[in-house]
Design brief:
233 residues, alpha+beta, Nuclear Transport Factor 2, Chain: A, two-stranded antiparallel sheet, 5 helices
């Protein structure tokens, strides 16, 4: 027996042992392979369910039930219990179980800054992805007016101090969330000669905006879009 034969035999034994350890051994007491037809059911006119004859496999134990969420704590720090805002948030969760209010608020703050800066820079491409068609048309009209007058806007954020929910709800599968933003920024408008015609380049301004975001909860698109803006107090 040459060396190559010995190597091949050793390799075959090794593979056999590995397969045996992975797949296990039959003992004669195993259940027969699962017959999918055996799990089919027929529904009678009285809405009863009768299993068809065949092999029945053991059901896996149910996972422990999640502890119920205390309604008074569900929106703690976001909305008072039994308030209209809490009821609106419950409507959204009922329509979209994946909704996470803290994740939304974080995204809303990012969107707020992106939209303000994109508007100042006249970045229509960025705005189109973040705004509803109606809001985009209004922003586009304002940008065109600036361009025609040769004006430039310079905006710099110092901070976004607050982003708090004002209202929430679902209507016709459209979820809406209104957020009040309180921020500090420097924003100036210059004419075509570079002179400041609005704002102060050396002074922070307190700004409050109330924006409404919407999303079709029946859509697979997870993104919210800005559908309404107004100045806050």
């Amino acid at each position: 027996m040459d060396i190559y034969t010995i190597i091949f035999l050793a390799l075959a034994v090794f593979i056999f042992l590995r397969l045996r350890s992975v797949l296990g051994q039959r003992t004669g007491s195993e259940r027969p392979p699962f017959d999918h037809a055996a799990r089919d059911v027929v529904r009678g006119g009285n809405d009863s369910v009768a299993p068809l004859p065949g092999t029945i496999i053991d059901q896996a134990p149910l996972a422990p039930a999640a502890e119920p969420v205390d309604a008074s704590d569900r929106w703690k720090g976001i909305a008072p219990p039994d308030s209209a805002l809490a009821a609106g948030l419950n409507e959204i969760v009922a329509s979209d179980s994946s909704f996470d209010v803290q994740h939304f608020l974080t995204g809303a703050k990012g969107a707020y800054e992106m939209i303000v800066l994109a508007f100042a820079n006249g970045d229509r491409r960025a705005l189109k992805d973040l705004l509803s068609s109606e809001v985009y048309d209004g922003f586009d009209t304002a940008i065109k007016g600036r361009e025609q007058r040769g004006e430039k806007v310079e905006t710099r954020f110092a901070s976004i101090d607050k982003a708090e929910l004002v209202s929430a709800g679902v209507r016709d599968r459209i979820a809406q969330l209104t957020v009040r933003f309180v921020s500090q920024m420097i924003s100036v408008t210059r004419n075509k000669d570079g002179a400041v015609i609005d704002g102060n380049a050396d002074k922070l301004t307190d700004v409050t905006d109330v924006w409404t975001f919407a999303r079709d909860v029946s859509s697979r698109d997870p993104n919210w879009k800005l559908v309404g803006t107004e100045s806050g107090h």
